[in-house]
Amino acid sequence: MKELDFIYKRKSVRKFTDEKVHREELMEIIKAATHAPSGKNQQNWHFVILNNKEKIQEIAKLVEDKTHQLVKTADDEIAKDLMKFLRYHTLFKDAPTLILIFAGPYKLSAYNALISAGKVEEADRLLETSTAIQNVAAAMENLQLAAAALGYGTCWMTGPNFAAKEIEGFLNFSKDGYHLAAMTPLGRPLDQEIISPQRKDINEVITIID
User: Hey, is 97 helix, strand or coil?
Assistant: First the structure.
């Protein structure tokens, strides 16, 4: 359907031109992100935006250093895996803008009710839904769709989160109860012909109950 074309414009972009992201468009992209749904409308997200390329590259260096640090104490198989994905964990280093999304706490009253009722297993299962992260994920999806609609490229990233402590320290960003959840580079795609990976057949991922 033509009305849904904006969805299919979104691709995972890993190479960018040097063109800066226009501030007005950047603000529109973030505004679109904040219009995502969130449980109880808690909007437990915060966006840290970096437009300084030197600082972006410094964050990539932090991820690289943490990788090499972990490799020293990991067994051969794990070390090999860490090094294999290092270039993917730092692909944001040449983007003109980096957006880091922080997730805040989410008040889950049903959890406390289940605990009070002695239903610990059900309470633990409720936590598995990770509502706080679902809210942030919805915002990220809105952000990426808006960016694509304006001709920008993004790449949803959680791989660098193992260096979250170092990244948060470098940013000197602190908001009570918030932690780094994901990040995305933002910029004009260097390659306009980006092919999406194969998707599972729709019949494989649905169950219809009439």
Answer: strand
| Residue type, position 144, single letter | Q
Letter string b/e over residues 32-47, b meaning 16 or more CB atoms within 10 A of that residue's CB = bbeebebbeeebbbbb
- Tokens representing 169? 């320290």
| Token pair for 98 | 């980096």
Mean pLDDT of the chain: 94
| Domain covering 2-204, topology | NADH Oxidase (3.40.109)
Which ranges in the chain belong to alpha helices (H)? 5-8, 23-34, 53-73, 76-84, 86-89, 109-116, 120-127, 131-149, 164-171
Locate the domains of the chain by residue range. Answer: 2-204
pTM of the entire predicted model: 0.92
pLDDT for residue 198 is more than 80: yes
d(CA 10, CA 144): 7
Closest by CA position to 25, among listed 147, 142, 155, 153? 147
Structure tokens given for 52: 């300084």
What pLDDT is recorded for position 191?
85
